[in-house]
Amino acid sequence: MQDAVGFDSGKYLQEQTEAILDRVSRFGNKLYLEFGGKLLFDYHAARVLPGFDPNVKMRLLTKLKDKAEILLCIHAGAIERKKMRADFGITYDADAMKLIDDLRDWGIQLRGVVVTRFDGQPGALQFKNKLQRREIPVYTHPPTKGYPAEVDRIVGAEGYGANPYIETAKPLVVVTGPGPGSGKLATCLSQMYHDHLRGVRSGYAKFETFPIWDLPLTHPVNVAYEAATADLHDVNMIDPFHLEAFRQTATNYNRDVEAFPVLHKILQRITGAEPIYRSPTEMGVNRASAGVVNDEKVQAASRAEVIRRYFRYASEYAMGLADEQTVRRVERLMEMLHIGPEDRRVVGPARRAAEDAQRQGNGNQGVYCGAAIELAGGRIVTGKNSPLMHAASALVMNAVKQLAGLPDGIHLLAPSVIESAARMKKDILGQKAVSLDVQETLFALGISVTANPMAQLCVEKLKELRGCDVHITHVPTPGDEAGLRRLGVHLTSDPNFATKNLFVP
């Protein structure tokens, strides 16, 4: 469990805010700022930078809300394919709607939603209609003709000129979206094109967190970013343009470096002058290194994240969601950092718990699962599956009993509650498996509070599980994953299946 602070969010917030305002002033008080990464709930950053506020970007926008407004971009193809955001288990279009709600809650103005690369896709059209009927402005941008090679066509009537112009009123326009490939950059450039036709000398910059440009290429925090984007085939690299222009080594990644020559030409064509940027790194606004107050803790947290990413991709490969190349890529990153899967402290105990279950003849229908959690202070607690509970469910019960100082033999859930739940699953809902997953177990625990004071005590201890490392020996069921996600634990699993069934409700 990473509970030590290695990053000062307050210091970072101050320096990043000042850097953004400085960049706005460089472009005559009209800047389109592309926000890379997550606007809210940036848990990757929070994991690799212990102390990082996962909502620091929104806090920054709150400080700048008198000067800023938001454009939210979403790729029409991502809507059509029902692309998922892995950390929340929701689709990109659902995430976009959630973000709109979040912006309202934070009191930040949304100028509108841009559906990019729109070509009449039915799902994207339905999404557009849904928002418009709730009085949210929606704009559609068709695929940019000529992109990426034909610059004159791109910066012309057939390219950016075919996009509707979005009227904005504030000096800072933050352009964000759910995930990579949402069309944020194209939207910024399209707006700049229309601005310059109208005599407005606007500019572009990119809000960056990772890779951290002024940390070494092989620093674990940058390696962790490469692991996080391994499925996109991103590779960190030294920015050759920055090195040539400034004689300074800067860490960037392949997509930004490869796109820079074309982007430089597009900016030159839009503005009619030589762009002020001489490298993709110079385009970025990134003061993340200023927040690093304990590099040792950041390095340790980043190594742990690389291992977590390995387990995630290995499980996704088993489920057919990732390719073998992605898994191999993260394996090479682990080798570079001289770490392995077993360096995650909860892996060994979880596997031994499964072995113990098999040796003792426990488990459920010939399947033996184990789970382990590392509590604050380094205590390891394990759980095993049974006909009554999944291994992850037993783990949660055992963990809260430990935190509450209760003996293992104490039953938190009344037998009548478990029996009623099992009967409901089998006789009413027609499910094959009746053992309780994490989500069902949490509901049962909540019900037990009325008759069991010890259950109430344990419910209060659930919040202490947030941020703890958890490993289970089998791919979690949807109910396990949803329950553990709500508890806020850092979950990994071995790429094994707990059942031969292809469909697991």
Question: How is this structure best described in words?
Answer:
- The protein is of the alpha/beta class and 505 residues long.
- The chain folds into three domains: 1-207, Roll (dip2346 fold like), CATH 3.10.630.10; 210-286 and 296-342, dip2346 domain like (dip2346 fold, Up-down Bundle), CATH 1.20.1570.10; 345-493, Cytidine Deaminase, domain 2.
- Helix content is 45%, strand content 12%.
- Helix 6 links the parallel strand 5 (110-116) and strand 6 (138-140).
- The protein is globular.
- The protein starts with 8 loop residues before the first helix and ends in a 12-residue tail after the last strand.
Q: Distance between the terminal alpha carbons, to the nearest Å?
A: 31 Å
Shape-level CATH architecture of the largest domain: Roll
In CATH, what is the class of the largest domain?
Alpha Beta
Total strands: the figure is 15
Taking the sheet with the most strands, its summary is: 7 strands, parallel
Report Rg. Answer: 25 Å
- Helix run count: 20
Q: Could you estimate the helical fraction of the residues in percent? A: 40-55%
SS strand fraction: 5-15%
Q: In the residues, how many domains can be counted?
A: 3
